[in-house]
Every structure is written in C-alpha cells, then in structure tokens.
Amino acid sequence: MTPSDHYAVFGHPISHSKSPRIHQLFARQLNDDIVYTAQDVRPECFEVAVRTFRAGGGKGLNCTVPLKEAAFRRADELSDRARLSGAVNTLMWRDEHLFGDNTDGVGLLRDLTLNLGLSLEDRRILILGAGGAARGILGPILEQRPEEVVIANRTLSRARELARRFASLGTITAVGFDQLEAKPFDLILNATAAGLKGEIPPLPDGLVATGGCCYDLMYGDQPTLFVRWGRAQGAKLSTDGLGMLVEQAAEAYLIWRGRRPDTRPVIALLRQGGQPRQTERKC
Ligand code: NAP
After folding, report:
1. Which of 2, 129, 142, 162 pairs as cysteine with 191 (C-beta 3.0–4.6 A)?
2. Range(s) of the domain holding residue 115
3. What is the mean pLDDT of the chain?
C-alpha cells in the first residue's frame, strides 16, 4: 500500500490549531489521501524538526507563530511574495530544495473580496500591528490600490521599518497607537497578537468611518474582543479571521498538490456551533 502524503503545521503553541481539521476536510473533498499533523516546535528546535520531518518522508509544512521568520531564513528558494514580506508560512520540498511561500496575504484578500464582497480600491485602511502577519498582508493589500494605508504599532520603530519596506508600492504612514487620530478609516485590520492575552490595542473612538468595516485576523469560537470593539463602534461589518485561515490553507494546498479546494463549505462547517458571520452587510 502506498503511504499517505504527510504534511504538518509547526508552531508554538499549536494545540489550538484548526489546520489539521481544515486540511483533512480539503483532502476528503478532493478525494486525496493525506495525513496532516500539528507539531509543537520552539524556534530553537525548528531546524532539527524540519530535517526530521523530511527524513520521515514529509512533503510540505505550514509554519505559524513564532516560526515564520525562521522558515523564511530556512527556505532555499522563495516566491516573490515571501521575499517581499520577509516571512514564510508554507514550505514545500522540490527534490531536496526547500521552496518557501507566504499565503497569508492572498488568504486575507480572498476572504475580504470574494467571501465578504469588499473592495479595497481607494479606501483608507488602518493596520494594527507590525509583526509577521502584517508583513504578509501588506503587499497584497497595496496591490488593490487603497487611497492610504496607516500602520499603527506598539513599537513604533517596527511600524516604520514596515512602511519603509513597502513604500514603493503605495502611500503608507507609520504611527504609534498614541498618535492615532480619530480620522475615520473604511477598513481596520487587527494584526496584533494582543487578543491572545485578552487585550486590544488602545484605540480612540471615531476611527471607523460610516459604512466602515473591522476585521480581526485572530479568530475564536466566540466574537473576539476586537470584533466586539468594531461592533460597538458602529462598524457595518466586524468579523474575525477564520475565513482568512481557511483561504490561506487552501492556497497552501494548491501549492502542494496543484488543486484548490472549495473553501466555502469548509468555512461554513467550522462556523457551525460558533458565531454566525455577518455576511449580509457589506461596506
Ligand atoms: P507577531 O509576529 O508575534 O506580531 C505580533 C504583533 O502584535 C506585533 O506588532 C506586536 O507589537 C503586537 N502586539 C502583541 N501584543 C500586543 C499588545 N498587548 N498590545 C498591542 N500590540 C501587541 O504575530 P503575527 O504572526 O503577526 O500574528 C498576529 C495575529 O494575527 C495573531 O493573533 C495571529 O493568530 C493572527 N494571524 C491570523 C492568521 C489567519 O489566517 N487568520 C494568519 C496569520 C496571523 P510589538 O511590535 O510592539 O511587539
């Protein structure tokens, strides 16, 4: 019997990961025989874990917090979007060459535009956070030609570094949270890890434009703090990042296996028992 193709997600912590379930649902949909596991890997163990996984016949990996920069350094070859972002969330062996890509940006964009029906063109967009996720989403967002992107981060120097890195692709400003004016934004994306500690960044009232939307890259079975903040601020749509998670996974699956799964039934299934999504109201 031919062994199943083995994929995995590495991260720390990882027990909460929905990726094994998502990839098994994709495989069932496409009648593929795969095994997808979640492995707790600390940054200092990353290199050994990658080698051991490959020695055991592993075909491809996803990397999540805090390993995306280590994966970027480990890849022998990079996609343009991974090179631009400086972070890798998808690895695949091509013979013994390790190819690195970043599917976070395209995943977010597909969720915003295809699933939620939003347009980013000529919009004012605020990104909270300047970590790995923000790096991954900035390029694809700027390709949509927004009027302006403001990056606000707790550590201002990291926001400035990101703004410099992407400056040639559009109008980007970097600010600290204390410099955020109540100038309304059409879309506010929370790409901070504050929610993992039960916090949201300190935000003034009046940031959400009339008809504006809020999107938390974090997700949970209950509305996240930021999703609740957005609703309290009168956002037309305030939702979490489950759709992005499924979309970035589908893009990884496409890279590994050459076929893109249909994401909608998978998102619907994962939402069952969780919070309903406000898809009826669009920006
Ligand atoms: P990261 O590289 O560790 O960056 C964390 C960011 O959050 C930094 O900008 C950090 O600011 C900021 N931060 C951390 N704690 C904060 C606090 N208490 N208050 C304000 N800012 C705080 O993490 P990441 O990879 O970018 O991930 C960020 C979030 O996106 C996580 O919740 C992750 O689960 C989510 N995510 C979701 C998806 C998806 O598919 N839905 C994909 C990728 C990431 P400093 O620079 O000042 O430290």
Report:
1. 129
2. 105-240
3. 94
